[in-house]
Design goal:
Blueprint lengths: L10 H13 L5 E7 L9 H6 L5 E6 L6 H13 L4 E3 L8 H11 L1 H9 L7 E7 L5 H9 L17 E3 L5 E5 L11 H10 L9 H15 L1 H7 L4 H4 L4 H11 L11 H13 L11 H4 L1
Parallel strand pairs: 1-2, 1-4, 2-3, 4-6
Antiparallel strand pairs: 5-6
Helix pairs in contact: 8-9, 8-11, 8-12
Length: about 290
């Protein structure tokens, strides 16, 4: 099943890249948020270049939606490669204390210098960066104990930088989500589309949902089949298009004449995957990219 390559780079994202560069000198550390379901695809390659030379912590978000075992392997992979990383979930609080502890470990020398100068109460300053819809606003609200940042399940909500004080002694500089102009690997674009990092209104969501069916049969077949009451005999040798139609018929999503209501089925599949209704699923594992 062929699908069209995905590219999406609104004008405000170029502005965000400039903002990150301009504000970098005013922070102690960069918190780079990535989606635990797609750690490779959700890591913007431009951010590493823009923030080079500044301490950085990779923060894997949405832990409660990802496969725990795959997330464990990602953390091991990062450790083996000398990358500072933590796994968190802003909704249930998973890993939040680890994030605070890790920031202080990375900045231990700076904190010691502050202490030597008698600057015991000085808050650390961290810049939060990442792709759209990766959970920046949710994390800020969790750390600040308020709903100071607008949170919506769609990309591109935060459009301006903003400082937020937190309850853990770290001031956060929130940056708008930013993608990069061209996805060299087409799978990256598809993964971003499936997880909601790219606006649905610019996508052929039916094609994306069909591709998602194929991917779920590869990385989480038991969960996929259980959710939609599919059997091994029914799904044998089916491609994404046929799996999509089978799910629609199982759910009774038909129009007059018996044709599949593809737009309704696509919306349902994407919503249920993104909400972890199908289960805790990771679309990428470290061994897939090594």
């Amino acid at each position: 099943m062929a699908v069209n390559p995905i590219q999406w780079f609104p004008g405000h994202m170029a502005k965000t890249k400039r903002l990150i560069s301009e504000c970098l000198s005013g922070v102690d550390i960069v918190l780079e948020l990535i989606d635990a379901r797609i750690p490779y695809s959700s890591k913007n390659p431009d951010i590493e270049n823009i923030t080079r030379g500044k301490p950085r912590l990779t923060v894997m978000t949405k832990a409660s939606m990802a496969d725990p075992e795959v997330s464990r392997r990602w953390l091991a992979y990062y450790k083996e490669n000398g990358v500072n990383a933590v796994l968190i979930d802003s909704h249930d609080g998973t890993g939040i204390k680890n994030l605070s502890d890790e920031v202080r470990r990375i900045l231990a020398d700076k904190l010691e210098k502050y202490s030597d100068k008698g600057m015991h109460g000085r808050a650390l300053k961290a810049m939060i960066v990442g792709i759209p819809n990766v959970g920046k606003s949710s994390l800020i609200n969790k750390l600040s104990g308020t709903k100071s940042t607008k949170v919506e399940d769609r990309p591109g909500v935060t459009l301006n930088k903003q400082w937020v004080k937190t309850e853990i002694g770290i001031d956060l500089l929130d940056m708008p989500g930013v993608l990069w102009p061209k996805f060299e690997d087409e799978r990256v674009g598809y993964n971003l589309a499936m997880t909601g990092a790219i606006r649905d209104k610019i996508l052929d969501t039916e094609e994306i949902a069909m591709l998602l069916c194929s991917r779920l049969m590869t990385c989480a077949p038991e969960k996929f089949m259980a959710r939609y009451k599919l059997t091994a005999d029914e799904t044998a040798y089916l491609d994404g298009y046929d799996l999509f139609e089978l799910v629609a018929r199982k759910r009774g999503m038909l129009m007059s004449g018996g044709a599949v209501n593809s737009s309704r089925c696509a919306e349902m599949l994407l919503d249920e995957f993104r909400g972890a209704v199908i289960g805790k699923i990771s679309l990428e594992a470290p061994e897939d990219i090594i």
